[in-house]
Amino acid sequence: MSTRPFAIVTGASTGIGLELAKLAAGDGHDLLIAADEPAIETAAAMLRRHGTEITAVEADLATPEGVDKLLAAAGGRPVDVLMANAGRGLGHGFLDQDFAEVRHVVDTNITGTLYLIQKVAGAMRARDAGRILITGSIAGFMPGSFQAVYNGTKAFLNSFSFALRDELKDSQVTVTCLMPGPTETQFFERAHMLDTPVGEGKKDDPAMVAKSGYDAMKSGDGDVAAGLKNKIQSAVANVLPSGVLAGMHRKMAEPNDGA
């Protein structure tokens, strides 16, 4: 059996998750990576070039069954690092959204993430060792007009990460929240947001975002907002009234046709 450290990375087929997996593999970790699409196998093939053991699981992490499938693939191996990055977005007005899609966002971003973290972090606490990185978002600081459900889920994760961190403060298990801004990934296409100002605008490099989160996790920091612009935006969001923030978000996320 390998003596290398072992990391689980979710949402690792593309974007920030894939970049996080690259960093962990380059750092000498064996990896268990997961996503809800076949591209996870392509990602695994690329990551094996680092010379570590890579296991890929295609599973819907919005469901307990999908999370259980992922955990079963770990084979009982102690997890040194958990990077809970899987997430879904959904644009347009809440009343115009399909509720099945709404629920999938909530179940992916919150329910499945919490279930996975509880299972893995419980074992970490028992061993008194481990690092957890949760991908929240600076969107969690703003009422998300035309992205209301997504922003709400990220507000939950931002808050949850600090609460769990405090609960574990007397242990050697650390919890870090990565809070990206708009990033150049498939997120906006999947969220039906290509027809919005934020979908059409300049975005951050996912490799930069992942590196800031990975470094913060290794340092045991509580949180990191990736990039100066996002640090400023998160600071501003803490002082402006919610109504003003909602109006600001509308200007970014309302579809160009006003729908």
TrEMBL record:
Sorted alphabetically, which InterPro entries does this protein's record hold?
Answer: NAD(P)-bd_dom_sf, Sc_DH/Rdtase_CS, SDR_fam
* Superkingdom: Bacteria
Which keywords label this protein? Answer: Oxidoreductase
Instruction: Tell me one Pfam family matched here.
Output: adh_short
Which family does the record assign? Belongs to the short-chain dehydrogenases/reductases (SDR) family.
Q: What is this protein called?
A: SDR family NAD(P)-dependent oxidoreductase
